[in-house]
Amino acid sequence: MTSSGVVLVGGSGVVGAQVAALLARRRPDLKLVIAGRRLDAAQAVAQRYGAEGMAMEVDAPTLPESLQRALIVGLVNDGHDRLLRLALAQGHAYLDVTRWTERQKQALLTVAAHGHPRAPVVLSSAWMAGVASLVARDAARAVAEVERVGIDILFAMADQAGPNSTAYMDRLSEPFHTMAGGEWVKRGGFLDGRVADFGAGGRHRVYRFDTPDQANLPAIVGAAQVDARIGFDDGKATALLHLLVRSGIWRLLSRPMFNSARQALLYNPGPGAAHRIRIAVAGRDAAGRPSGTTVQLADPLGQAHLTALGAVLQIEHLLGADAPPAGVYLGEALLDPEHACRQLRAEGVEITAV
């Protein structure tokens, strides 16, 4: 698609600023617009990368007339689909990397109610803007018939994180559904733990949590079971959160009056640390024999950098010669996984089979 500009909504945030930095280096030809709730913050990021800064409230978004065919990138929670509706109404391309599973379903209903979009609408909110699922797809190429995919995530307590990450993590105790044996099964958040080996990151206990990968990958790779679990590199923090969830205390803390207490527990960003993901794909080879592969992924620059990379790969594809036509897409189904892994490695992400 051709574009009059790329608008990073939330571009002054932790992830958004890294998206801007990557695009300024990889695609200096782009007209880049940094949109944020605070004009001064947006302009500060814009000045660093030769971009334009503008104020935008995500619940009441507007675009200048000069951006008649833009690519709108949602890097903040679009809880009421106002940004999505703006893109649909004005015919802009739209990329979102912030939605958990229920809000992904909500976006699909919004698009369906609007009718056929006039530009691509890409929902790439699987873990790290679809990176985990893209690596899983790449690993699945070695298995003729995929039966199970496991995604284990190690979240470093010292890693950088934006406030939107807290909204995602705040839902840890919410029930959700995953595919098991080809059937949808209701799961409890942050329960059903296991110990995962993260290689150089050590062995850590991880628990189930809701991520769109579990809803999307069964359809993409044909797996009858997809499970995602997460834990912290501080075992005591993981154990405490599991105890709070299992005892029911976390549900009580989910009341609005305890918002600040939850925020204090979940949102303590540090200077940065490696983000690690272990991906196991199991199934059968062409002869029907059991087959599988396990991949360790590590981004030394952390989860915000990895999310930004996932978003940038989607942006570059939407602006490229092989961009998809108007329609609705899952980001992790849209990109070529082998190409995506090459690009990730070129940016310093470690992806190794074990």
UniProtKB/TrEMBL annotation:
<feature type="domain" description="Saccharopine dehydrogenase NADP binding">
    <location>
        <begin position="6"/>
        <end position="100"/>
    </location>
</feature>
<keyword id="KW-0472">Membrane</keyword>
<keyword id="KW-0812">Transmembrane</keyword>
<protein>
    <submittedName>
        <fullName>Saccharopine dehydrogenase NADP-binding domain-containing protein</fullName>
    </submittedName>
</protein>
<dbReference type="Pfam" id="PF03435">
    <property type="entry name" value="Sacchrp_dh_NADP"/>
</dbReference>
<feature type="transmembrane region" description="Helical">
    <location>
        <begin position="6"/>
        <end position="24"/>
    </location>
</feature>
<dbReference type="InterPro" id="IPR005097">
    <property type="entry name" value="Sacchrp_dh_NADP-bd"/>
</dbReference>
<keyword id="KW-1133">Transmembrane helix</keyword>
<dbReference type="InterPro" id="IPR036291">
    <property type="entry name" value="NAD(P)-bd_dom_sf"/>
</dbReference>
